[in-house]
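Re-run with default settings, no changes from the original entry. Doing this only to confirm the output is reproducible before filing.
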Amino acid sequence: MITINLLPVREWKKRESVRKQISVFFLSLVLLLVGLLGAGSTIQGKVMMQRQELKALEAQKKKLAYVNKKIQAVKQKTKEVENKFSSIEKLQQGRTFAVQALDEIVTSLPLNRLWLTSLQLSGGNMNLAGVALDNHTVALFMRRLDASAMCSGVKLKSSKLKVVQGHNLMQFALSLKISPPAGKKAENKKD
């Protein structure tokens, strides 16, 4: 016998298929939303951690800025002290420079043959005037000065005969440059 099924099976199958597709769609949509929310919360957590780290770094920067200002102030004071020390060294050197220059002149004098009548020191230039027994004595004095470590550029400005108490003497004038000897500068820098 033939059985005929009058129930709408095909429609049920279509409805069941549509229902499954809709449920898969909503389930996919829900999974997608859950995934996006999870990713968003993870990213938001990382952003919050970065913000907290940034705040901590800014607080540390403020602390270090204070220390940096202190370091800059100390460096400035150190520089000022070094400038003062260099000024003191220059003054010390200048104080002894005139004595050293006079010592150099005195050691270059030919004894009992040449006498100085005036001496002018201004900066690194010196002008000398005096009398000598003869021109050879003046030339000897000039050679000794030129051989000196402190003296350079010795020039005869004038030389003329002068009678003093019945004696014929040579009146002369010299100009020269005076500078601290190189060895003394190096010693001062080493100390």
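The domain at 53-180 is CATH 3.30.1360.100 (Gyrase A; domain 2). The helical segments are 9-108, 135-147, 182-190.
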